[in-house]
Design a protein that fits this description.
By secondary structure, this protein is α/β, with parallel strands linked by helices. It is 22% helix and 34% strand. The chain contains seven helices and 44 strands. Strands 22-24-27-29-31-34-37-39-41-42 form a ten-stranded mixed beta sheet. Strands 30-32-35-38-36-33 form a six-stranded parallel barrel. The protein has a four-stranded antiparallel beta sheet with strand order 1-2-4-3.
């Protein structure tokens, strides 16, 4: 019977040695594979062609032999030691690279250093993870031979864009201070303790510019530099009463005693007039600058200021007029009027508050309020007359949860409160006529201009037709050319005017679609919404609701989550 052996050769591979003996079991490919699988060399790569050739040659040697006769030895290399191989893959954006290893077949495993070298030769230059290299090398050494193992070995780094320059206030405004009053030792708050904290002195730092940052560079795994986008810059603006620090160009200093007030990208300092109360004993106040009143403004008094007005107490049946913001930590209280039985135009409230900035008060009743920007009443607004260019917010800063009952409000943007109207059905009128009237006036002006251009165009067209109708001997071609050119100019202008009118009409429609009244808790009956030519009122009690103008009518939609504005 032929004998088969596996023997290492001088190339560190393995030969199949066959000793032919006629007789016994036949040697086949399956026999050789069984021999290999049972040997210590079963993880080497098999050369099937060599096995086939060895068996063919064996059969040739055995053929002429007599039974039990031996023939010459046959030796073929059938097993080969194959070292681990590696393919490096770089992603198309060059932000990562991975290695795919075909594990060794009895050959040499790849070390972490060998993987690194292969990657570098493939063009990977940055972003290597030493930990990943070691893990991949260890994993490939443990996996079965001739299997694929892959892992990420390098990662690029995206650039970090720079931060925009920022303007950081170093002092509080009067309004910020009064909305966060000083606490006493017993836990209560002193609404009148405004003191020197609000006022600044000459040389006090007011605001600081935090310069933009350039950001940090990134890179690809092939070491291509990725440039960051620098932040946007802002210019520090010194307002009146301030100056750029000579020691630090990013710091704004006060150069007079007064009240600090934020302006876009800067701050200004108003002259400040401070007084405990405004009463008959002090007289009225008319001041160029800002006014701080620690206590109350009593009945019949007037306070007029070109800057902000801050009141630590109450305003009762008095007149307040400000060129900036008005902040009243107490309430605005007027004498009672039956405004539901009297025409709004015939009512004159005993208390009047007029601001070109914003207005804030704790509560308000029977008052006349005029405001160029926004109004916020923290608790409740009762039976008052308002003319507000911006929005009306009744409630805490984080949620409109206050009460709006009765009165007549002309508003520019929106009205938001917790409860609007009252169970008793007090009529609450909210009119969005301010901007609508302005846009309608703009459309009327465009129509007037259109009529002028139309008349002029018709006149020129008639002139063109008359000139064209002249007999040849009386024709005036030069004049005709001039009139035609003038006609074309005016016709083009008419087209532009029509486009302008369409744009304003769209703006008007967009505005009507944007305005709303929102009650985050209850909307009672008797709340009227007026949007231009459309108006309607609530006729029953609703839960959280929003009144809007939709498809040429006023509708009331329920809301689940009230969006904050």
């Amino acid at each position: 019977m032929t004998k088969a052996h596996l023997i290492s050769n001088d190339k560190n591979n393995v030969d199949l040695l066959l000793e032919p003996i006629k007789g016994g079991d036949t040697i086949s490919t399956a026999t050789i594979n069984e021999l290999i699988n049972a040997s210590e060399f079963n993880n080497l790569r098999i050369n099937t062609a060599s096995i086939t050739n060895a068996i063919a040659e064996l059969n040739d040697v055995l053929k002429p032999l007599q039974e039990s006769q031996s023939g010459r030895e046959i030796r073929y290399q059938v097993l080969e030691r194959i070292d681990a191989s590696i393919i490096i893959n770089i992603e198309s954006d060059e932000m990562s690279a991975s290695a795919e290893i075909t594990t060794a077949q009895g050959g040499t495993h790849l070390t972490a250093k060998a993987i690194l070298t292969a990657a570098q030769e493939a063009g990977v230059k940055k972003g290597f993870s030493k930990e990943n290299l070691v893990k991949l090398a260890q994993l490939a050494a443990k996996e079965p031979s001739n299997t694929q193992v892959s892992a990420q070995i390098a990662l690029g780094k995206l650039p970090i864009n720079g931060n925009d320059a920022q303007i950081k206030p170093l002092v509080e405004s009067a309004q910020a201070r009064i909305l966060r009053p000083k606490k006493r030792e017993d836990g209560s708050v002193d609404m009148r303790d405004l003191g020197d904290i609000i006022c600044v002195k000459v040389g006090d730092p007011l605001i600081k510019k935090i310069p933009l940052s350039e950001g940090r560079e990134g890179y690809t795994v092939t070491a291509t530099t990725l440039d960051p986008s620098p932040g946007n810059d802002v210019e520090l603006i010194p307002g009146e009463g301030t100056v750029i620090s000579p020691k630090n160009e990013n710091v704004l200093l006060s150069n007079k005693v007064g009240l600090p007030k934020m302006i876009p990208n800067g701050m200004e300092v108003d002259e400040v007039y401070k007084i405990k109360n405004v009463s008959v004993a002090t007289g009225n106040i008319n001041f160029t600058g800002s006014v701080i009143i620690e206590g109350d403004v009593t009945e019949g008094m007037k306070v007029i200021a070109s800057g902000d007005i801050t009141v630590g107490g109450f305003v009762e049946s008095a007149m307040i007029e400000s060129g900036g913001d008005i902040t009243i930590s107490g309430g605005i209280i007027g004498r009672k009027h039956d405004i539901e039985q009297t025409k709004v135009t015939d009512v004159t409230m005993s208390v009047s508050v007029n601001a070109k900035g914003n207005i804030y008060a704790k509560y308000c009743q029977y008052a006349q309020i005029t405001c160029t920007q926004d109004v916020r009443i923290e608790n409740q607004l009762l039976h008052s007359l308002l003319d507000v260019n911006g929005k009306l917010w009744i409630g805490k800063a984080e949620k409109a949860d206050g009460k709006l009952i009765g009165g007549y409000t002309k508003i520019g943007k929106s009205v938001q409160a917790g409860m609007i109207g009252a169970p008793a059905g007090s009529n609450t009128h909210i009119n969005f006529e301010r901007k609508i009237n302005k846009l309608k006036d703009e459309i009327n002006d465009i129509d007037d201009l259109m009529h002028i251009e139309s008349d002029k165009t018709t006149e020129l067209l008639n002139a063109v037709n008359k000139l064209k109708a002249l007999p040849k001997d009386k024709a005036k071609p030069d004049l005709l050319a001039k009139v035609v050119a003038s006609y074309q100019v005016h016709a083009k202008r008419m087209g532009e005017i029509l486009e302008q009118k369409a744009a304003v009409e769209q703006k008007l429609q967009d505005y009507k679609d944007s305005v709303y009244i929102e009650a985050t808790e209850k909307l009672y009956h008797g709340v009227e919404m007026i949007v231009g030519d459309f108006n309607d009122r609530s006729r029953r009690e609703y839960g959280p609701s929003r009144m809007i103008c939709k498809e040429r009518k006023i509708v009331i939609d329920p809301i689940v989550n009230s969006p904050g504005n």
